Amino acid sequence: MGLGSLGDVLEEIRITGLGVIEDATLELVDGFTVVTGETGAGKTMVVAGLGLLFGGRADAGRVRRGTGRALVEGRLRFVPDDPAQKLVLDRVAEAGAAPDEDGTLLLARSVAAEGRSRAHVGGRTVPVGLLGELAEQMLAVHGQSDQLRLLSAAEQRGALDRYAGEEVTQLRARCQEQYRAWRALVTELIDRTNHARERSQEADALRFGLTEIEAVNPLPGEDEELKAESRRLEHAEELRIAAYTAHQALAGDPTMDAESADVAALLGVVRRSLSAVGGHDAVLADAARRADELAALCGELGTELASYTDSLDADPARLAAVHERRAQLAGLTRKYADTIDGVLAWAQEAAAKLADLDTSEEALDALRAKRDEAATELAGTAATLSAARSGAAQRFGEQVTAELTGLAMPHARVVAAVTQREVSAETNTPSVVVDGRRLAVGPDGVDDVELRLVSHPGAPELALHRGASGGELSRVMLAIEVVFAGAGGPPTMVFDEVDAGVGGRAAVEIGKRLARLARTHQVLVVTHLPQVAAFADHHVVVVKDSDGSVTTSGLRSLSAAERPRELARMLAGLDDSDLGIAHAEELLAVARAEKDAVA
């Protein structure tokens, strides 16, 4: 199965001046890629380069002598519209970077010989920490000297939740929502209690303002309406004269018998003159029609002006009342907002805030009741979540232990220990009571999850990094990743010397599991075992020059015809031996048959 729909894929990595590698480019494909080569050729530098590219510790001692700096560049391809990658792309965008037009994102990390380190994403300089954040979403590196992703307690809990499936993920989402609501109530109660005096003073100020506004009882838009009315009343005589004069000009003086030279009379002359000859010329007929329209408009306007003159109020008492009301409104706008509409909005907000500032014992009791109710709901969900996690942890441990049997660790056992965080009532740690026990609670519930290894019967349960050697830890991580494979996690996985200390049938089993993991992930493996390499979909060999350095052609992809010779070299160091090549071809055939059987 390809990775085209599974998420982002690391397409290429170029390493310059790192360790024994002078300049080498590794093109990666979907599925299972294996890197092999003679001892000292630089296989592990490929993994070191990946670690550096994704935010690992910069070690100036690994800069190749004479180069001045080590540079690692990588290209990621993102699948369009994949919701799982939106967080990554959003984080990249926050840093001011963006993928190229073809959907690929370029990453770069350089380390100078004097130890200075720089990081680039999408062509922009970014903090090295951003590369580490991207790695959490995209890459899991398992190696004897690497910081292993699954050794993080939070990641172990998250991985177990993904493995457990929809029931647990839904419970965790509900727990997170209830936790936020409960913490908000707790914070509010503490704030109301600790700042009662300040809140009471603020509440008094708000009540005073609301009382003052209520006494005036302003109406929406009233200040603008009164302003307009005030202007009319103050200039009533000027307005009356202007309207009367305009009316006379339009309609004439009704007290005069003779036809006056007003607009209406003049338009009458125009209408009569044009109408008399309109039948002889269409142009004048149209002019007569428009003269009729003008006469009608003049009549309407004259009527409106007459009505306006009759309705104009010059009452001094009304003007005094308007001035008084405007003064009251101005008192409010000076204190609370620029307009009366703003004053009313302030009053609405103040009333809502006043309810939140209530520090009366009745209000505090009601808030305590809401807090306790929220705590009870949270505790119930956390208890259900804890029980579901414990059931999933039991299944998970059994599956990983079964995987270890085929990885030359038949007596080892992995345990996913789910424990609850007990606290005393005197501490300030956020806590809830579950089944009579006071437990520390967080957004993910009350559980700590720790993956532990029992190396042999009778041995104690120890945390992974304490209970296994480097080689064993790689195999334990492989078993864990195989079990977790269908439950999300980073799409690209890198294993360095995962087969350390094993051989024979156990090596074949490792190869089978890596091939199974590669059905849903991009897998890169550095190995010295041909049994593992035979299961790869793509084989890259690190070629060492006669003087012990790696040139620009140091990383070379092998064709199907070239693979048997490399496997023969790995089997017995006899890449020209017909018997060795025949054995290698048989090994490849067995691997193909095993992969086809589980496809």
TrEMBL record:
User: Which InterPro entries does the entry link to?
Assistant: DNA_recomb/repair_RecN, P-loop_NTPase, RecF/RecN/SMC_N
Domain RecF/RecN/SMC N-terminal span(s) in chain numbering: 10-548
Tell me the domain of life.
Answer: Bacteria
Q: Which UniProt keywords apply?
A: ATP-binding, DNA damage, DNA repair, Nucleotide-binding
A Pfam family this chain is assigned to: SMC_N
Task: Briefly state the protein's biological role.
Answer: May be involved in recombinational repair of damaged DNA.
Q: Which family does it belong to?
A: Belongs to the RecN family.
NCBIfam families annotated for this entry?
Answer: recN
Q: What is this protein called?
A: DNA repair protein RecN
Q: Which organism is it from?
A: Cryptosporangium minutisporangium
State the taxonomy lineage. Bacteria, Bacillati, Actinomycetota, Actinomycetes, Cryptosporangiales
Q: Identify the gene encoding this protein.
A: recN
